[in-house]
Design brief:
Its cofactor is FAD. Keywords: Cholesterol metabolism, FAD, Flavoprotein, Isomerase, Lipid metabolism, Oxidoreductase, Steroid metabolism, Sterol metabolism. It holds the Pfam family GMC_oxred_C_1st. The protein has a single domain, classed as FAD/NAD(P)-binding domain (3-Layer(bba) Sandwich). Helices cover about 25% and strands about 25% of the residues. Strands 3, 4, 10, 11, 12, 13 and 25 form a 7-stranded mixed beta sheet that branches. The termini are far apart. The chain has 11 helices and 25 strands. By secondary structure, the protein is of the alpha+beta class. The structure holds flavin-N7 protonated-adenine dinucleotide (FAE). The site of flavin-N7 protonated-adenine dinucleotide has 39 residues, from helix 2, strand 8, strand 11, helix 9 and helix 11.
């Protein structure tokens, strides 16, 4: 069955419908017009071909948003090129993002069927046919792993669970030893948390909230088996969620909205960093513009862009010359671009460390079948708020978020996303035959992640007299071990770049996203990506501009 046609193939209705900001690309200088309101403004058709810009940022996720805002505040005009759409125009149903239980083309990036992370239930796949469209969630397939990523103005912030976790200081110090942890915890983590709009759940409300019964059951089981647990802050507005539960506002998290976008309640980057960035009048966001090449030109860099329609087809190609280029296309996007530019000789002097040291943050998912007296509730908030902390277990460190399973009916399922300390690292390589970049991660490499997660859930199952669900990730498949939400690394700080993200070999080229982090953050990563970007851009502005 096909869902409604969200937009006719080849048309560019939403691109054309977005109000175009006044934009001058004259005399080698770009001037954006101040954004109004509280949401980032983007243009799908900016007149940028042939322009020269002081700074071009590739991608509008966490790293890109921080770079754009801080550069603009320092007086630098910035062009952001974002391959995904500007999610500001409602579809035919009046909503910007599609319903979770009835996904349409808006859900996935250029796919004909959905590819749900938890894609099976009771013996069968419940993926659905959809119309091909430049939707908000990409499930990018490599030989041994699918990597989920956000596509659009706001990057991963549009689709993620909003869990805003600052890692324990000793864990951060072990992961990025070249970074001064004291500065991070005194200055950059607080700065990131504040600008992201991180808030904490009202713990009294939590104890009785119908929508968090699943989390209370998860906590009870963790406690009964002797595991530590912790509340997890979020960028979803918990006060708004209270009103959702009281039925006084439009439901979003309580309507199961998360991986295909939230129509309300969430402080995604388009409402925080990017709104502030375009509000300076110095930042222009070119949506549906994919960077395809970067090469030296004069004293700067020539950047090639493909403007794409909602079928992913190239409408036109453009060239911009930028004095400085910030790679913020995400761990995978940045690594793919740099690895192919190095292999093809356009940026041939990049370090051999480019493309190396990639990890999946040890992600593995699993579900448990509870007894009838431990129902997880028919109404579940799509925003997790609690995690089981077993990182101190030297035999298999793990931090497991108690995840919702908002099916709209009582499933008795307790679902978890475990972040484990998987030491294996993969690399990206360019295939000159296909012209594509592959990632050599193998599914079997997740065995140590499964083993670490089992140290928690085998114990809980034994204590509770329960079993694993084997119907959520395939037919008789217990572990969701072939995908990740948390790609990290590929252009690691102090290896492929200097200690602030400057790429070796090319003055004026920077990496400022999750590619800098060597494969693991010990918790969910976006607060760390944001805080590290804050640290690096401050130094770059002070020393390089
Ligand atoms: P990212 O946010 O991915 O932004 C990169 C941007 O670059 C994207 O908008 C791309 O479309 C764009 N792009 C890529 N290539 C190009 C190109 N060639 N030209 C132009 N644009 C390009 O990067 N993390 C948490 O901390 N807490 C959570 O609760 C959480 N839940 C998640 C749930 C899901 C379903 C997913 C997919 C991720 C989740 N994450 C979570 C991970 C988090 O969103 C991710 O680590 C960050 O978004 C990565 O930030 P970056 O700035 O590296």
């Amino acid at each position: 069955m096909r869902d409604f046609v969200y937009e006719k193939p080849g048309s560019n209705r939403y691109a054309g419908g977005i109000s175009r900001r006044g934009f001058l690309a004259a005399t080698g200088f770009i001037v954006g017009v101040a954004a109004l309101g509280s949401r980032a403004t983007a243009s799908a058709e900016p007149a940028i071909d042939g322009a020269q810009v002081p700074a071009l940022v590739i991608g509008s996720g966490y790293g890109g948003a921080v770079a754009a805002l801080r550069l603009a505040q320092a007086g630098v005009d910035v062009l952001i090129a974002e391959m995904g759409m500007s999610w500001t125009e409602p579809g035919p149903d009046g909503d910007i993002f599609c319903p979770v239980l009835k996904p349409d083309g808006r859900s996935y990036w250029l796919r004909e069927t959905t590819d749900q992370p938890v894609g099976y239930f009771m013996g069968g796949s419940y993926n659905k046919d959809i119309d091909r469209y430049t939707g908000v969630l990409d499930s990018e397939k490599f030989s041994g792993i699918r990597v989920y990523q956000g596509r659009g103005v706001g990057g991963g912030s549009l689709v993620n669970g909003g869990m805003a976790v600052t890692p324990k200081r000793e864990n951060f110090a072990a992961i990025l030893p070249s970074v001064n942890a004291e500065e991070m915890y005194a200055t950059y983590y607080p700065r990131a948390n504040s600008a992201l709009g991180v808030n904490h759940i009202d713990q009294n409300w939590f104890e009785s909230a119908e929508c968090y019964k699943f989390a209370r059951v998860g906590r009870k089981h963790a406690e009964r088996s002797g595991f530590d647990w912790t509340f997890v802050p979020n960028v979803y507005d918990f006060e708004y969620m209270k009103k959702e539960q009281a039925n006084t506002v439009r439901r979003s998290a309580l309507a199961g909205e998360v991986i295909y976008g939230n129509n309300a309640g969430k402080r995604s980057l388009d409402k925080t960093y990017l709104a502030a960035a375009t509000g300076t009048g110095k930042v222009t966001i070119a949506a549906q513009h994919m960077v395809t090449a970067v090469r030296p030109s004069g004293g700067g860099y020539e950047v090639e862009l493909a403007q794409i329609d909602t079928q992913g087809a190239t409408v036109t190609t453009k060239k911009v010359v930028a004095q400085r280029v910030f790679f913020a296309a995400g761990s995978v996007g940045t690594s793919k671009l740099l690895v192919s530019m190095k292999a093809q000789g356009q940026l041939g002097d990049l370090s051999d460390a480019v493309g190396q040291n990639w990890g999946n943050n040890g992600n593995v998912m699993v579900g448990r079948a509870n007894h009838m007296w431990d129902g997880t509730g028919t109404l579940q908030s799509a925003m997790p708020c609690l995690g089981i902390d077993n990182w101190a277990d030297a035999g298999g460190p793990a931090f497991a978020e108690v995840a919702p399973f908002p099916a709209g009916l009582e499933t008795y399922v307790s679902l978890y996303l475990a972040i484990t300390k998987n030491p294996i690292r993969a690399k990206f390589t360019f295939d000159s035959g296909t012209g594509k970049v592959d990632l050599n991660w193998q599914t079997a490499w997740n065995q140590s992640s499964i083993d670490a997660a089992k140290r928690i859930f085998d114990k809980i199952n034994k204590k509770e007299g329960t079993i694993y669900r084997t119907d959520l990730f395939g037919v008789y498949k217990t572990w969701g071990d072939d995908f990740t939400y948390h790609p990290l690394g590929g252009c690691v700080l102090n290896e492929a770049t200097d200690n602030y993200g400057r790429l070796h070999g090319y003055q004026g080229l920077y990496v400022i996203d999750g590619a800098l982090i060597p494969g693991n953050t010990s918790v969910n990563p976006f607060v760390t990506i944001t805080a590290l970007a804050e640290r690096n851009i401050e130094r770059i502005i002070a020393d390089d501009l």
